[in-house]
Amino acid sequence: MSDRSPVVSVIIPTYNRAGFVCEAVHSCLVQIDPPHRVEVVLVDDGSTDDTLSALRAFGSEVRVISLSTNHGRNRARNTGLAAARGTYVKFLDSDDVLEPVSLQLELSVADETRADIVISGWQCVEMGETAATARPVTFDAPLMEPVIDSLLAGRAIPTSAGLYSREMLGDLRWDEQLRKLDDWDWFIRAALRAKKIARANTLAYSWRQHATQGIRSESMLRNAREHHVILKKLEEALAERGELTRERQKRLAQYFYKEMRVLSLYDKPGFEWGVRHIYQLDADFVPRDEERQWWMRVACRLLGVRRALSMHSAAKKYIKGTGR
Length: 324
Known about the structure:
The N and C termini lie far apart (67 Å). The protein folds into two domains: 8-216, Spore Coat Polysaccharide Biosynthesis Protein SpsA, Chain A (Alpha-Beta Complex); 219-322. It is an alpha/beta fold. It has 13 helices and nine strands. Strands 1, 2, 3, 4, 5, 6, 7, 8 and 9 form a nine-stranded mixed β-sheet that branches. The chain is globular, with a radius of gyration of 22 Å. The mean pLDDT is 93.
């Protein structure tokens, strides 16, 4: 690698974010000295506002790839990943910002540990009318050892809290069919490839919450469906690796149960598949940690998952219909 090769590529997908994107880009360019060590690859996903005009101020400091049609953020991320030249890559949404010096700290951990993935903490920041009174909510990087059991316990990081070795990623790409839980899916599949995951004692970025956030328009039903799609992919990956033990099957059954209430209300075929699959994974299944209400745990034990959840859904529909 020449002295002028970027050490890290920050990939930013954007769509109609003229009011946010410059802050996102600036937060990347001030991370490391000399600045050419950070490559900002911005993929405009067919914006129809002034996003591209706003980016002209950065000149050659930013590599801009323009897509003629809007295909979704994961197509844009994959386009940026294919063009990236850095030893490491990081993904940043165009309405978020990296925290000062966080990238330098993550790279130091990567150099010291030779990790394939460096994970950091993050903070959620409210914007708009509630910003004046809302304090940022911070999250520490989760412990990820052992990796598989940590994933099955629900430990993961959001989009920009990870720094990834581009060599380790290889041909891995974002799933372009997912729209709600895509960062969870990405992290699971990357973590299964990694030989080492290290933690950095820093906040990687501010995940900014606002009314025009695309994820807020996605429904609970899409969340539930994608939850099952991702768990099935994880299950298949573990089976292929010969690492789907009996205990892990039982844990997967618990995790599949997590979104079953939503499916029982809005997706009968998905609900029926989920019930069958839970009992395939654990013939003696009774919900535990993924069911917070004790009386539902008892109902599932006495009646079985199908009858207990069906009765619960019927009661909810009745109450909603009567306005009680």
